[in-house]
Amino acid sequence: MATLGDKFVAFNGEKYAWNIRVCCQGTSGDAELLLDDTPGERMSRVLQKFFAFRTMEMEKLTANPDWTLANVISINLTKIEGGGRRNMVPSEFVLYFDCRIPFERMDVDELEPTMDQWCHDVSNSVLIDYTLQELPINPTRINDPYWVTFEKAVEEVEVQMFPGRTDSRHLRNAEIPVVSFSPIINTPVRLHGHDEHIGIQTFLDGITIYCRILRELGELME
Questions:
Q1: CA geometry: angle 47, 114, 78, nearest 5 deg
Q2: Average pLDDT value for residue range 53-64
Q3: Residues contacting residue 117 through CB under 8 Å, at least 6 positions apart
Q4: Alpha-carbon gap, residue 123 to 129, rounded angstroms
Q5: Which of 92, 132, 152, 171 is an S-S bond match for 19, by CB 3.0 to 4.6 Å?
Q6: Is the dihedral of CA 118, 120, 122, 126 positive or negative?
Q7: How far is CA 53 from CA 39, 48, 133, 218, in A?
Q8: pTM of the model
Q9: CB-based contact 97:78 (threshold 8 Å)
């Protein structure tokens, strides 16, 4: 992952993911009518609750300058399903949320019942389903000889928790230590965004750093 600063960042752990599906059922009928308790109305009230929580997490991040995205729960609406004809109110709308939870978040036990209650408060016809609920995975300890050697090769590196999730979680889950690292500094973070790029000099400097890391680790293993 790139960083805007001039200090390298390595990640020894990461958030874990929940995928959430909320089905908002309600009154359906002809669109010329003003029906009560339509799926759209219920969907709107559900979204207000999820977005209010999202805003609180964003405010925590703003209020703590030393925090990163890895310190807060990120939740985003990623997909909406429903409707077929422009002149008919459908019987349901389905919402999909992607939620990423920090490893050290202590109030996570309250998250599922809280979300359940949000949906119940709107209507008994609003059904929530957790299609993915990963468990937290212990981060990699950064005091073994491999880390010391890596740190020596990079010279100056800051350790953080990764704000998303990567394939390294499978290795950590198998108790294989993993440190995630890319020598990309002074570069905007545009994950999956438009104009994601890396500067020429940053790219060339990265090759030098990787050569140094491999050389140092090779000497350790001799």
A1: 35
A2: 96
A3: none
A4: 15
A5: 132
A6: positive
A7: 21, 9, 19, 48
A8: 0.85
A9: yes
